[in-house]
Recover the amino acids of this structure.
């Protein structure tokens, strides 16, 4: 293998059905997926893999030499999900095949239901990588923590004190509704970036690059399942990959951004705001009100495209206070019951079952001419309308 050989890490996930509602992946479905990945490894399509789950999402972490969006690798993932879904159907698991929106695979899982985060790089002598996997939320949930990791010196000390980080990072932001993206440089365009990514249901941080040499630093799955399906089929539970140390933020700086359990969209029926709670693999299962939303962080070292590890990074009492705060926030939000801002706003609810209820009420309304309604003076739509 030449020294310049590139390694790709692909994290591809799907909800293919789960045990007791949307709670956890059944071990038999994981075993079915593992069989497909073991075969792909023996054939040399992938070099290594690690299979896990976060709540009801089956997560395939794969390393290989075939680059991002490689049809062969995507086909392996697709077949693993199909085999797992078959078992889910046999067992009568809930929402079996939930995220597999089609029967026909066409070279790439994007747009077919599963979500993917992939990055390719030349391995450094030591290559620490963190894989984040969340359940009961959406890709924009990573906006706030990724901003803090790569843009906020109050989170990442290295932005100030490490010359290799001091130039800053570039954020690629994807407009999931407009189907466009924009690249913004930090720190100089920080306020513009925040003007966009503060709307995480629409503007999603898709990639982060180191500004000095364009080296890939982070990537997020940006698939919005409901926008693809046109209706509510489940939340777009996202994954992200972040490189750490030696020219990137330290591992401890990357996970520090999750010490604040910020509010994210998802939770019950994908229709509620709740705190994102960092948990260990052991606690990667949503319970109360199908939540609160959770995120797991697995740390790997990658060597010659092999996955060394993982280290279960949130399995630490140092995150107990974050979890306690998350539960206090969960309790506070729950008390709002069906009221906003616990329940999501009308734009997001469009993809749920609420419109069917509202439709039924339409005929009940009678004209009330109390005053003339002129409509807004200022065009309130965001961009590209
Ligand atoms: P070590 O001195 O333990 O390698 O740690 C360096 C570092 O960057 C910690 O954040
Ligand atoms: P998932 O998106 O994790 O399948 O959850 C869906 C849901 O409706 C939870 O209440
Ligand atoms: Mg589910
Ligand atoms: Mg899920």
């Amino acid at each position: 293998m030449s020294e310049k050989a590139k390694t790709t890490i692909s994290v591809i996930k799907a909800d293919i059905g789960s045990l007791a509602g949307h709670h956890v992946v059944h071990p038999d479905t994981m075993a079915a997926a593992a069989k497909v990945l073991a075969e792909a490894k023996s054939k040399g399509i992938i070099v290594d893999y690690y299979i896990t789950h976060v709540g009801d999402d089956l997560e395939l972490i794969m390393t290989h030499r075939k680059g991002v969006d490689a049809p062969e690798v995507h086909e392996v993932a697709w077949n693993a999900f199909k085999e797992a879904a078959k078992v889910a159907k046999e067992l009568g698991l809930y929402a079996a095949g939930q995220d597999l929106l089609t029967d026909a695979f066409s070279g790439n899982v994007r747009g077919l239901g599963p979500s993917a985060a992939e990055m390719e790089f030349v391995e450094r002598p030591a290559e620490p990588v963190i894989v984040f996997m969340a359940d009961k939320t959406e890709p924009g949930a990573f906006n706030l923590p990724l901003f803090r990791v790569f843009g906020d010196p109050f989170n990442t000390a290295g932005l100030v004190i490490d010359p290799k980080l001091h130039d800053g990072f570039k954020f690629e932001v994807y407009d999931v509704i407009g189907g466009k993206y924009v690249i913004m440089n930090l720190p100089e365009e920080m306020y513009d970036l925040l003007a966009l990514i503060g709307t995480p249901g629409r503007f999603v941080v898709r990639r982060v690059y180191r500004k000095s040499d364009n080296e890939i630093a982070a990537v997020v799955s940006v698939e919005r399942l409901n926008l693809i399906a046109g209706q509510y089929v489940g939340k777009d539970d996202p994954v992200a990959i972040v490189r750490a140390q030696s020219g990137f933020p330290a591992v401890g700086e990357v996970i520090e951004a999750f010490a604040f359990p910020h509010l994210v969209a998802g939770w019950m029926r994908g229709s509620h705001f709740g705190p994102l709670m960092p948990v260990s693999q052991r606690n990667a299962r949503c319970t109360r009100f199908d939540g609160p939303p959770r995120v797991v962080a697995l740390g790997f070292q990658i060597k010659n495209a092999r996955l060394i590890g993982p280290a279960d990074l949130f399995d630490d009492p140092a995150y107990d206070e974050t979890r306690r705060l998350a539960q206090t926030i969960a309790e506070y939000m729950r008390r709002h019951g069906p009221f906003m801002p616990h329940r999501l706003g009308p734009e997001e609810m469009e993809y749920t079952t609420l419109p069917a209820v509202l439709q039924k009420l339409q005929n009940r309304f009678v004209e009330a001419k109390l005053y003339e309604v002129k409509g807004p003076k200022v065009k309130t739509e965001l961009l590209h309308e």
Observations:
- The longest strand covers residues 294-303.
